[in-house]
Amino acid sequence: MAESDFDKIDAVLHEFEGRKGSLIPILQKTQAQLGFLSKEAMKYISEKTKIPVSEIYGVTTFYTQFRMHPIGKNIIRICHGTACHVADAPEISEALYEELKVEPGGTTKDMKFTVEEVACLGCCSLAPVIMVNDKAYGRLTPSKIKDILAQY
Amino acid sequence: MENSVRIKVGLASCGIAAGGLDVLEKVENFLKEHDVDAQLEHTGCIGMCYAEVLMEIDDEEFGSTMYGYLNAADIDDILNAHFVEKKPLTDHIIFSDKLGGEEKVILDYQTRIVLRNCGVIDPESIDEYIERGGYEALQKVLKDMSPVDVIEEIKESGLRGRGGAGFPTGLKWQFAYNNYADKKYVICNADEGDPGAFMDRSVLEGDPHAVLEGMLIGAYAIGSDTGFIYCRAEYPLAVKRLRIAIEKAKEKGFLGSNIMGSDFNFDLTVYEGAGAFVCGEETALMCSIEGKRGMPTLRPPYPAESGLWGKPTNINNVETYSNVAWIIRNGAKKYAEFGTEKSKGTKVFALTGKIKNGGLVEVPMGMTLRDVIYKVGGGIIEDRKFKAVQLGGPSGGCIPESLLDTPVDYDSLTKTGAIMGSGGMVVMDDTTCMVDMARFFLNFTQDESCGKCTFCRIGTKRMLEILNRITQGKGEPGDIEILEDLSRKTIKGSLCGLGQTAPNPVLTTIKYFRDEYEAHINDKTCPAGVCKDLIKYLIIEDKCIGCGACKRACPVDAITGEKKEVHAINQDICTKCGACMTACKFDAVEKL
Ligand SMILES: Cc1cc2nc3c(=O)[nH]c(=O)nc-3n(C[C@H](O)[C@H](O)[C@H](O)COP(=O)(O)O)c2cc1C
Ligand code: FES
Q1: Phi, psi for B154 (deg, rounded to 5)
Q2: B206 touches chain A (CB under 8 A)
Q3: What is the DSSP letter of B556?
Q4: Under CATH, what is the fold of the domain B346-429?
Q5: Would you tell me which residues 523-562 of chain B have a C-beta closer than 8 angstroms to some C-beta of chain A?
């Protein structure tokens, strides 16, 4: 980890100083700053907060939001909620994996895209839905995937 | 600065996903270019999500006009016709005061209590909420009612928890009130875990102050000064609007110390979840707020006795709180006029799946499923055959056509083997495979099980394995019985609602669609044509003219045949993507 990364974590820790039960927000903010939670980052947070590193690791692995590997420049979330499943979401994911040549949860070789499957993005009436970073795309068909990816 | 022309664009997550921001920009530009003097506003979910993007224009000339199915590209034409030529384009009108339009009928069947402001006000403006009677209930409570009065009023209204279990809200408040402590907490459960439901998101995005006001009244009733809203991580817009609402409420003195000049203090914080379905369970949710792994704990003690950090805590769902201010303002009696004997008021549903008018609807309790689907929802897409409706998500079940006249209330729905749930209602037609649906939900619950109880952790896994086998054509006689047995044991052997209800999707599909299981197991066929290992694509010789369209469309080169001659699909190479069937203009490809 670079020196500046430690500074970023320090800033996050400072924000939550003295507030009880703030481990999850600390991890969320750290991940937002660094992209993922490395072993080094978890160890450092443990040293500073006096929370055992085993407990931090336990929390990190329990919640799906936390990642322990670097991610691509763009995150694609494919909805696999009920409404999207009924609207043939599996075909959308297949088209996407085929196009990007990745496995579910994987990152493309050029580090441009990371693909995650999630349960419901809350736009079920537009099923099937994917979200690239913060932008949602609805009413998809496998043939629309190429055009969407080309925008990034 | 009152303005006689008002334009509202629906900008909830669904509106934005459908291109709402592009529409907004176009409207802004048009107004500037043509010097139209209008007030442009954002609003929350209007409910007719199937027709997004939606825009309402309110002017003297035409009254209220709702435009739907909008694209940014249409906006110039529509606004030009409306404001310059004064001849609105009726093609895009969904309903209007003066110009006709049939879809208003859909709203006529609804009763809007929870959604009273959704799609009407700008959710980021506290003044618009106040204009429509907002915070009057809080004032009434602080001035004229004791905590016991409030609790009695809520009890009398018959309001039951909308988070799934349907526990009477007034009684829950009473328990928290009765437990004396130096500190008490109020929590709003906005984790909305059911995948395929978005009622709570729409309320949070469309009318956040209604949730705040409900929580304030609850806090006053039980004697708490600190609250948390636990919001799902996937809802960034809801979190943003809640934070804005809290900020504005503080400025007005509705949050903080000595609220409205009384001695009541209340502070509220939004807490973002980190993605775990089980955290919707109340004891797991509180562990999560404490910064731990979200594992459910044994009840009793109930949260009302020992909840967050061991203090008495009241936890309710978003929709539950959104009812509260309405009840206080209009009276418990008025509320109890809606609904059935044991289920009062209304229920919000997220109507999705193979339904024509999918979206957010609010109906009085007691309406039949048939009316919700056919009258409010407009029936099945392409008028196909209805097969089942799924209620309650991973904890719920699939209800078949023969039970469509079941009224929507807690007890009637429980009798069918499904549950009311939080409000997800997914409609399925004859192209949905019920075994695949059971597999889908089991895949979800086994993944989300926290792992504490053995049957929930391993029982669900074994059930998933069996369902996977069945959908792959490797089912064996006796599988159905093993599934039933494992279901019973998982229900008995689990501590929390996740495991206790996880088998419901399996049990209800076996109960009502046993023939589909048998077709998969005995005949190795999938009647709905969904399970890939059990279907094949064939070219019908009589219909094929040898145009080669299927051959070009096939991504894996599985189709052979000379031009003008009958083509054939090599089953060993075919990946069953269905591209040939879509490409063929002569209906010469069939799915078996
Ligand atoms: C596995 C599981 C998930 C749950 N998820 C939610 C949820 O997402 N939202 C919710 O309001 N209640 C959820 N509940 C119900 C809560 O435990 C609790 O009953 C509810 O928040 C109480 O509020 P109410 O009385 O207003 O319904 C869930 C329960 C279980 C067992
Ligand atoms: S199921 Fe996909 S957005 Fe809800």
Answers
A1: -65, -40
A2: no
A3: T
A4: Ubiquitin-like (UB roll) (3.10.20)
A5: 555
